[in-house]
Amino acid sequence: MDSKPSTQGKRYRWTRKQIALLGTLSDAALSRKLDLCISTILRKRKDLGIPGTRPWKTIRWTRDLISMLGKFPDAEVARVGDMNTLTVQKKRTSLGIKCYARKSKSWHFWTKKEIALLGTMSDADVALKIGQKKASVAWKRGKLKIPPYGEAYANKRPPKPLDSWTRRQIAVLGTMTDADAARKLDLAHSTVHKKRVSLGIPPFGRR
After folding, report:
1. What gap in Å lies between CA 139 and CA 145, rounded to an integer?
2. Distance CA 135, CA 80 (A)
3. Nearest 5°: CA angle at 82, between 77 and 87?
4. N or C: which end of the chain has fewer CB within 10 A?
5. How far is CA 34 from CA 54, 113, 161, 203, in A?
6. What is the pLDDT at residue 171?
């Protein structure tokens, strides 16, 4: 998977809308949203004295996330929900849910066949197939560092020489994320990213 473009050695020009997002999402989530490297987000947030964690009450607790409380370690729930561990602990204790225990009846032992399904279809489809929660599948896939289905498929596509692009294909670059462009053009994510960068086309959302 390609890393976010680094802004080291040059000063990135922040817009008011982008600055307003600092502290409302985790640095990792904002990095994905703005297509910037995490170090750039972290440096700007610290320069402005903006805290890195979101207020507890602003976090949207979905049914899947709540169902994970006590069934998985607080740290794992925090990673899936993109929040800090203390936030998870507060939510769990406020609901009177005991902390996670590996020997509990809710613990799911993943078989080799089930693990082999991860990344070959959407998390929702895997969850339906093995009778588990979607959040549980996403947690297991993330723990094993297996990319999501669409991304994994894009990276398996054959590379395309940079000098054989058509005008229509080039016109797609920068109008959507590199991952979406890779799926649309049936190319590897890295191929799309390299071509866009070589032409000096800014990432989607930064024009």
Report:
1. 10
2. 7
3. 65
4. C
5. 18, 37, 28, 9
6. 92
Q: CA neighbours within 13 Å on the CB side: how many for 145?
A: 1
Confidence of residue 3 (pLDDT cuts 50, 70, 90): very low
Compute the C-alpha angle 151/8/180, nearest 5°: 20
Are 22 and 14 spatial neighbours (Cβ–Cβ below 8 Å)? no
Q: Nearest CA to 77 among 23, 155, 136, 151?
A: 136
Per-residue pLDDT, 183:
79
Cβ(162)–Cβ(195) under 8 Å? yes
Share of the chain above pLDDT 90, in %: 1
Which residues have C-beta within 8 Å of that of residue 119, sequence separation ≥ 6? 141, 146, 147, 148, 149, 152
**Residue 96 buriedness (CB in 10 A; 0-12 / 13-18 / 19+):** exposed
- The predicted model scores a pTM of 0.30
Tokens of 42: 């972290």
- Please state the φ and ψ torsions of residue 170, each to the nearest 5 degrees: -65, -35
- What does the radius of gyration of the chain's CA atoms come to, in whole angstroms? 20
Instruction: Count the Cβ atoms, other than its own, within 10 Å of residue 73.
Output: 17
Q: What is the pLDDT of residue 153?
A: 53
